[in-house]
Amino acid sequence: MSVNLLLFLCLWASSFLVTRSEDPYLFFDWNVTFGTIAPTGIPQQGILINGQFPGPNINSTSNNNVVINVFNNLDEPFLLTWTGVQHRKNSWQDGTLGTGCPIPPGKNYTYHFQVKDQIGSYVYYPTTAMHKAAGGFGGLRINSRLLIPVPYPDPADDYTILIGDWFSKGHTTLKKMLDGGRNLGRCDGVHINGRNAKGDGKDEPLFTMEPGKTYKYRICNIGIKTSLNFRFQGHNMKLVEMEGSHTVQNIYDSLDVHVAQCFAVLVTADQEPKDYYVVASTRFTRRVVTATGIIRYTNGKGPASPDLPPAPVGWAWSLNQFRTFRWNLTASAARPNPQGSYHYGGINITRTIKLANTAAKVNGKLRYAINGVSHVDPPTPLKLAEYYNVADKVFKYDIITDTPPASIQEIQLAPNVMNLTFRTFIEVIFENRETAIQSYHLSGYSFFAVAIETGTWSLEKRKNYNLLDAVSRHTIQVFPNSWAAILLTFDNAGMWNIRSEIWDRHYLGQQLYASVLSPERSLRDEYNLPDNTMLCGGIIENMPKPPPYSI
Ligand SMILES: *[C@@H]1O[C@H](CO)[C@@H](O)[C@H](O)[C@H]1NC(C)=O
Ligand SMILES: *[C@@H]1O[C@H](CO)[C@@H](O)[C@H](O)[C@H]1NC(C)=O
Ligand SMILES: *[C@@H]1O[C@H](CO)[C@@H](O)[C@H](O)[C@H]1NC(C)=O
Ligand SMILES: *[C@@H]1O[C@H](CO)[C@@H](O)[C@H](O)[C@H]1NC(C)=O
Ligand SMILES: *[C@@H]1O[C@H](CO)[C@@H](O)[C@H](O)[C@H]1NC(C)=O
Ligand SMILES: *[C@@H]1O[C@H](CO)[C@@H](O)[C@H](O)[C@H]1NC(C)=O
C-alpha cells in the first residue's frame, strides 16, 4: 500500500470520527393534545404541543441531529412538516401525506433528521386535515456553527415572532366547509405568537430589550391564507436573513411577509425607554385586520403610544420590496464558502416547467388545481408506493405537461406527480391566472427566486431575471395575474411537495409532488426507508421490505 493511500485512508477514517463527535443530537418528546387557546381573545379549541401554543421553539445548530418523538393524543391522524428543512437524501422525514403515513390517534412516531449544511429561520406545522388552523406550529432555528463567520455581530438575544391570520370557526368546521366545496371567506383576526394585545395597559410584553442593545427577531407568517405586513413602532429593521440565506442588509420600515415566508431582522433598542407595539396587519384585503404585541424596554417608563405606524397600500409596493431583496454574495453560507461561489446564472436550463393555478367546480364543489389537476392524497403515500415498487397501483407519473393549456376549464382529481431527472437544472414558472395572491413552497430544496412580474411569462422575460444575487429561499409569492420564476438543481433525491401555502387551496388540491429518483438506488443519493416507518394504505403493509439501497 502506498504511503499516499495510507495517509488518505487515515484521513478518511478520522473524518468519520470527527464528524461523529461534531454532530450532536437534540432529543425531544412532544405530546400533541387539544386544549384551550384564545388567539383573538375568545377561548376556543386549539392544538397544543407539550401544553404550549404556539409549540416549542427548536433551537438547533447546523449539522445537529434532531430526534423528535411525537405522541399524537388527538382523536385524528396527525403529521408535522418542517418547512425549509432540506432533509438531504431523506424525504422520509418531510412530513407530508405524499412522503409518509400520518400518526394514528394514540400512537407516536419519531422523526429523525439532520439539519445539514443549512442555517436560518424556519417553522414547523401540521399538514393533516386543517390542523394548521388550530395550532400545532412553532419556530425552528438553525444557528451557524461557531467556526463559521456570521455577517453581523452576535445579537443580545434571539426572538421568534410567528404571525398569522386566524379563523375563529375552528379547524373541524373549516374542514367541513372545504369538504363541502365552500370557500373559507375572510379571516376573523390576526395573532402575534398566539395572541393580540388588548391595549389596556395590562398586556404582558412579548419580549423585552435592554437599552442600547441589538436583538434578532425572526418573523414568520404561519397563517392560513393572508399576506401580512409587519412593523415596529419607532424602530427600523435591518434585514439579515431570509429562509436560510444571508441577505444584503437593507433597512426597512415594514416587511410584507407572505404565507410560509420567514425573515430575520436586527432591531436596536435606541429609542426613548418605554413600551412599543409590533404590528401585523392584513394585506390585499378589503378590510384591514390588525394585531399588536408589546415590546418593552427593561428600563421602560411608560405605555406604548396608541398611534400605530401605517401599513403600505397596494400590490406595487410589495413587488418593489421583493426586488430589493439581494443575496450577500460574500457572506459565508452554512459551510465556510461564500454563498455567491455557486454561480447559478451560468448554468444551462435543461427544462422549463410552467405551473398555472386555477379553480373550478367538480361535482358542484370548489377545487383548486395546478395545470388542470387537483391533487388528492392516495391512502398509500406516494414515496412508499415508489419504494415498494408498486407506484403503478397508486398513481401515474406526469399526468400534467410542462406547459399548461391557455385556458383550463375542467379539473381532474388525481395524485399529481412529476418525474424530475436527478441533478438537472430546472426553471419553474409559477403562473397566477387568478385574482388572489399565491405563495408557493418547494420542500427539500432552496431555489433562486430570480423574478416576479405582472403579465404573462415568455422566453424573452429571461432577460429580466436576476442571475447574480437573487436570494436562495424556499417560498415565493405570486401576485394576481402575474408570474414568478425560480431556478434550481434537483440534486436531492426523494419525493418533494410543491404546494400552494394558501392553506385552503392546498387542502383542496393545489399541490403536486416532484419525484426525484437516484437512478442507481444508491445510498450515496438517498437513505433507506427508516426502520420505524409507519405503513398504511392497504397495499404495502404485508409486502416484504424491498432490498435496501446499495452503497
Ligand atoms: C399527554 O397529554 C395527555 C392529555 O393531557 C396526558 O393524559 C398524557 O399523560 C400526556 N403524555 C405525556 C407522555 O406527557
Ligand atoms: C440556542 O442554542 C445556542 C447554541 O447551542 C445557544 O448558544 C443559545 O443560548 C440557545 N438559545 C436558546 C434561547 O436556548
Ligand atoms: C414511540 O415511543 C417509544 C418510547 O416511548 C419509542 O421507543 C418508540 O420507538 C416510538 N415509536 C416510533 C414509531 O417512533
Ligand atoms: C456581506 O457579508 C460580508 C461578509 O460577512 C459583510 O462584511 C458585509 O457587510 C455584508 N454586506 C452587506 C451589504 O450586507
Ligand atoms: C450552455 O449551452 C451553450 C449553448 O448550447 C453552450 O455553448 C455552453 O457550453 C453551455 N454551457 C454549459 C456550462 O454547459
Ligand atoms: C423519469 O425520467 C427518466 C429520464 O428523464 C426516465 O429514465 C425514467 O424512466 C422516468 N421515470 C418514470 C417513472 O417515468
From TrEMBL:
A Pfam family assignment: Cu-oxidase
Q: Tell me the organism.
A: Corchorus capsularis
- Any idea what this protein is called? Multicopper oxidase, type 1
The family annotation for this protein states: Belongs to the multicopper oxidase family.
Q: Which UniProt keywords apply?
A: Glycoprotein, Signal
What GO molecular function annotations does the UniProt record carry, in alphabetical order? copper ion binding; oxidoreductase activity
List the PANTHER family. L-ASCORBATE OXIDASE HOMOLOG (PTHR11709:SF309), MULTI-COPPER OXIDASE (PTHR11709)
InterPro entries membership: Cu-oxidase-like_N, Cu-oxidase_2nd, Cu-oxidase_C, Cu-oxidase_fam, Cupredoxin, CuRO_2_AO-like
